[in-house]
Amino acid sequence: MFMFRIFLPATALCLISSVCEAQHPNLGRPLTPEEISKLDITVAPDGSGLPAGSGSVSAGANVYSEKCQSCHGARGQGGPQDQLTGGVGTIASEKPVKTPVSYWPSATTIFDYVRRAMPLQSPQSLTNDEVYAVTAYILSIDKIVPEDAVLDAKSLPQVKMPNRDGFVRWWPVPKR
Amino acid sequence: MERRDRVKNDKTKVGALAGGATARNGFDRRTLLRAGVFAAGIAGIGSGIAQAAESIGADAPEWMKAPGRSFSTYGVPSKWQEKVQRVIAFPPGRPGTGSSRTPLHLLEGTITPNGLHFERHHNGVPDIDPSRHELVIHGLVKRPLAFSVETIMRYPMESQIHFVECSGNSGSFNQPEPQQTTAGGLNGLLSCSEWTGVRLATLLGEAEVTREAKWVVAEGGDAAAMSRSVPLEKCLDDAMIALYQNGEAIRPEQGYPMRLLLPGFEGNMNVKWLRRLKVMDQPVNARDETAHYTELMPNGKARQYMFLQGVKSAIIKPSFGMNMKGPGSYEVSGLAWSGSGRISKVEVSADGGKSWAVAALTAPVLSKALTRFRLAWQWDGRPSTLMSRATDEKGEVQPTRSAWVSQYSPVQFYHFNGIQGWRIEADGTVKHVYV
Prior knowledge:
Low-confidence stretches of chain B: 1-23, 31-48
Shape of chain A: globular
Largest interface: A-B, 51 and 59 residues
Low-confidence stretches of chain A: 1-14
Shape of chain B: globular
Oligomer: heterodimer
């Protein structure tokens, strides 16, 4: 690159730098940390992105019966929409029953998904406490967390999902 | 080259080929000649000479005898084409979730009309006001930035022709019995467009990703805020923020005002209504990359983050619903594609895979785009099984259905790319069969 430069006349350098500016117009508006924190709803398996707040299994049972049960059935057994509980231990069988509890590797996914997308008719309406609580309730049904569990940003990533070791990374694509 | 392949493939019929006759299976490497046109034209002369007292209108169709319609501000297909519609096989369980399919069996060429591009939504199609929409880039970057739609329009653009295929496409092939439905019903979660927009690498370059960055989590501005983890290397390669589809602003069903386009990667990752990109050091196990779009194997382990759409092809003509009109000349044609690059070869068999002929590929043959293949076929009226097998420029060959199925759990249906077959019965009926 350096070698290339010294052989170029000054006019050519100008031309190239104006082309470079056109390729990088730098028109983005800088964002403040406050703006980012309002937009950033991503929760990672290590718990990064989880908000303040907490929720108990019992509080979650109330949220569930009021806002989730009409689609997902009593205790998450499904109908008319997806089954949320059960199926633990079936994944390697002839008839795997994939549910968030039996199949998903991390509990943070339940929080992340419910907070961004549920309930279907009024997504993003639950408070952070309600999302923690309903996550705790769903996980309590198959005894993934105890009846007296209270989930928050610290305890949720610690929850051990039954199928946490069930996935093989396929990116980068393994060489044959 | 094509000729050499053809001959190599069918050594027993070299003599017949040189004489211009059809080869084994009835395949001819040349496209069908329109031999009948000339004769019909000549026969027409002299048969309708008008008498002096008559106007020529007596024999003219009504649309030649009165002025046609005036201009329209946005054209629509002919009323005679009203059956060319997206296929909605399974009524969605609730409004705005589920999918509709491109009617591949009712289309030609390789570009999908915008109104027929397949749809897959997770909570309906949002009606986004572009003046209130921004694309935000943050996370492991030196300069977190927001780009308005108006701003992105000022960036240098490029156009690329690429397919988008849902990884659930052709999912019914995991069933024990072949589903009797059209080629679009089976394979229509697949479309191809010319996409125009801004290279994502340009915008990431301005935000300047840090050394720890490995993944980019993309999020849509729909009522599901659908999100997926994308490898950073793809974002810095051929990923595009697509704004236009076949020359017009992207349709709402395809992500208006902008979508992420990841050529060759599974459809779900091409996040529509794109509003946020968070640069991270890890993927996030988003719901759609754990609950869905993972490949469960018989031992209970699942492949995760399997992004590339495999090399694949399907015969579209003939296919279910297009019954043969007796023995004679037909063109067999179909589509081939690969998430890894260009299609290098498509072979066609009419005897259930005993022998294969090399099809002609209609130019242009583009990387990660639909490619049309064609082959003239003389059907002798006997029961036949048509199949196609694609190879891409990386040397990957489309597997058999049984080889594909044996890799996975019985409930697994994502990323099916096995060889497909159509059975032509003696009466001309076309049935879907496993081969």
